[in-house]
Design goal:
29% of the residues lie in helices and 30% in strands. It is an alpha+beta fold.
Length: 393
């Protein structure tokens, strides 16, 4: 499969568009002022037991949401009061885990983490290895070497996740990256714990370079090309991408823009529409609300005598689900998602549909299948991390 990452200006923003062959699969915008990933020394200004959260001030002009259950027993105190539990007035070290979205505040966590090419260093206190790594000998070797190192050296309950990309890499390269990121993370924490409130301690941001490197390392494409029409971006790409293989191109045709060359504006317009057509002739109706997103699956022009047959409905629902997951990723839709699939009466076909749903959500690590309601509506949740595409645009 061929992949292309196009970096160009769109609606006044430098954006990256990832295409599988000719299909648009993601639109990325990395704002310079985005606080996602930043580490701050902060002060607890309010503790609300009723909602299980505290609000902290990091000197950003607005308080940040700090969920207590997720951070229980992991607070990184700079200064702590007399009571055992976290209280207003305490000073702690936090990392922004979710950007502010509309009226919702940014969320912070004490589980400070850094993502590398092959590993993620966090504060889980555990060594976890991706289940997608099938080389059992490599898994055993990685666990053995990492356990030995972290048992002897680990501070601040630091843990590690070995990413799928490590399967095709040298073991020593993975170990060295883990040690380097561990050193960086502990350095950040030490610096933060000796700081005063309202200080930016470190910036751990994702940008076009890290996004591209992640694609290359995960070996997503047989041939991968990055193309831009921005001279400054070209310099960053050539100096920043130290993994391969990748073909970096500069586009300089004044007659046809990159957006028009790849039909990006038309692809975005179709993907962001309320009514999205399926290849079978069916279509989706997508209605976002303040509380949730509702998606209705319709047979449309594909209606025929076959429409009552459950095998046909199963095929239509599978096609609809594949398209829905693509759109959730592209639009970066998060929160509660309710899907009204075509009704399947046959128990075996219905069970096959549920099995397909559970298998398909694995394509998106932010998406979770919850259940089917009594009315036959499918419930999903998708983790909120950054702004949806419609808000960016």
């Amino acid at each position: 499969m061929n992949g292309t990452y196009v970096i160009t200006e769109y609606k006044g923003k430098m954006m990256g568009f990832l295409l599988d062959e000719k299909r648009l699969v993601s639109a990325e915008y990395f704002a310079e002022d985005d606080i996602l990933g930043n580490v701050y020394s902060a002060k607890v200004v309010d503790y609300v037991q009723g909602i299980g959260a505290a609000f902290v001030d990091a000197g950003l002009g607005d308080t940040l949401y700090y969920p207590l259950k997720e951070n229980e027993s992991r607070h990184l105190y700079i200064k702590h009061g007399k009571k055992q539990e976290l209280r207003a007035g305490d000073e702690i070290l936090v990392q922004v885990s979710k950007s502010p979205i509309k009226t919702k505040k940014a969320e912070v966590t004490s589980d400070i983490s850094i993502t590398g090419n092959y590993v993620v260093i966090n504060r889980s206190g555990k060594i976890n290895i991706s289940k997608k790594i099938h080389d059992k000998d490599k898994v055993t070797l990685l666990k053995s070497k990492l356990s030995e190192y972290f048992n002897e050296e680990s501070l601040y309950n630091v843990g590690i996740i070995i990413r799928t990309a490590a399967e095709n890499s040298d073991v020593n390269e993975v170990i060295n990256e883990a040690k380097n990121l561990y050193s960086r993370l502990t350095g950040i924490i030490k610096k933060g714990l000796s700081s005063v409130p309202f200080k930016l301690i470190d910036t751990i941001k994702k940008d076009h370079i890290s996004f591209i490197k992640d694609i290359i390392i995960r070996n997503c494409y047989d041939n991968f090309t990055v193309v831009t029409d921005d001279a400054d971006m070209l310099k960053l790409l050539k100096s920043g991408i130290d993994v391969g293989p990748v073909n970096i191109k500069f586009y300089s045709d004044d007659m046809v823009s990159l957006l028009n060359l790849y039909g990006i504006e038309d692809k975005i317009s179709k993907a962001m529409a309320r009514k999205v057509y399926l290849k079978s002739g069916g279509y989706l109706i997508i209605d976002p609300t303040e509380a949730l997103t509702v998606i209705d699956v319709n047979s449309g022009k594909s209606q025929s005598k076959k429409k009552e047959k459950d095998d046909y409905l199963l095929k239509l629902n599978k096609e609809a689900l594949d398209k829905i997951i693509d759109l959730l990723i592209l639009r970066n839709i998060s929160g509660i998602i309710i899907v009204d699939f075509m009704n399947i009466k046959d128990k075996d076909k219905y069970a096959e549909m549920i099995s397909y749903i559970k298998k398909s959500v694995a394509r998106d690590n932010l998406l979770t299948y919850v259940d089917m309601t009594g009315l036959g509506l499918c419930e999903f949740t998708r983790k909120k991390i950054s702004k949806p595409l419609n808000e960016i645009l």
